[in-house]
Amino acid sequence: MVTLYHYAGATCATKTLLTLYEKGVAFDEEIVTPQRLDSEEYRRLNPDGVVPTLVDGGTVLNESSVIMVYIDEAFEGPVLTPQSPALRARMNWWLKTVDSAFDALRVFSFAIFVRDKLASLAPDVLEKKLQQIPYYAWREERRRLVADGPYAEDALPAIQQIVALQAKAERALQDQAYLVGDYTLADAALTPFINRFERLGVMLNADQAPNLAEWWSRMKERPSYSAAIADRTTQASLDAAKAGRERFEDRINELLEHKECQRALRDFQSPE
To answer: Which residues, 6 or more positions from 17, have their beta carbon under 8 angstroms from its beta carbon?
Structure first.
């Protein structure tokens, strides 16, 4: 039996959930708590202490895009990879492009959703949590975001990448319903990112990206979206997202209107 290790709302793990549901693969779930992420037991499966991790018999896989490709190749069900080498290369480009935007999504999600929880901790408790972050760059980034939220120096580069990713999708969807011909792993990879952008209040509107808006409506109609995202989203998480959006609405709009974001929208949305 396949087992997926993840936790609720984890964007990269959601990519793998979508793929499992699209393929119709039966699987077990192990919900990983923050404490378990740092445990010796879990680190044997995933040395970085992150999710997702997929276990299929004696095969242990980390990295969401690697897992998605494995699921599509290893199990029966709808084929989610194009047969054409050119289209397959394009799909792989999208997997890489979405992965490259993860740091930006992480930064802005933390600034809007998570920061207040840590900012309210006693300094020694906060420092202990920060020291659990394995990489120096991530740890210091988190320190800045705890101090300044979306006003930190990390916020503008992050939102510029968020805008650029959406603009690239808008361009790709000009003459087709999906990113690469039919529905593929590329669409599954992008879906949880757009879902998070919408909750953060940084999704481009329908006037700016009409093709993306139509694609998003189609994605939300798929049974996999209900199973992997909608049915797993709690009202508490929706309320927290709304509170964060409303609290920082002016700052979010200020960043979206910044010349660097407008440049990203212009440069990446223009036809090739």
So the answer is: 4, 6, 227, 228
CATH: 3.30.930.10, 3.30.70.100, 3.20.20.70, 3.40.30.10. Which one for 2-74? 3.40.30.10
Label residue 137 exposed, middle or buried (CB < 10 Å: 0-12, 13-18, 19+).
Answer: exposed
Question: Edge to edge, what strands does the sheet with 2-6 contain?
Answer: 27-31, 2-6, 53-56, 59-62
Domain ranges in the chain are 2-74, 85-269
Q: How many CB atoms lie within 10 A of CB 201?
A: 18
Q: Kind of pairing, strands 27-31 and 2-6? A: parallel
Determine the Cα angle at 3 with ends 18 and 78, to 5°. 40
85-269 folds as Glutathione S-transferase Yfyf (Class Pi); Chain A, domain 2 (1.20.1050)
- 72: tokens are 């599509």
Q: Tell me the C-alpha distance between 220 and 230, whole Å.
A: 9
**Topology match between the domains 2-74 and 85-269:** no
pLDDT tens string, the chain, 272 residues long: the values are 899 999 999 999 999 999 999 999 999 999 999 889 989 999 999 999 999 999 999 999 999 999 999 999 999 999 999 999 999 999 999 999 999 999 999 999 999 988 888 889 999 999 988 987 878 998 999 999 999 999 999 999 999 999 999 999 999 999 999 999 999 999 999 999 999 999 999 999 999 999 999 999 999 999 999 999 999 999 999 998 999 999 999 999 999 999 999 999 988 765 54
* Tokens 């949590």 found at: 129
Non-local CB neighbours of 130 within 8 Å, separated by 6+ positions: 139, 142, 143, 146
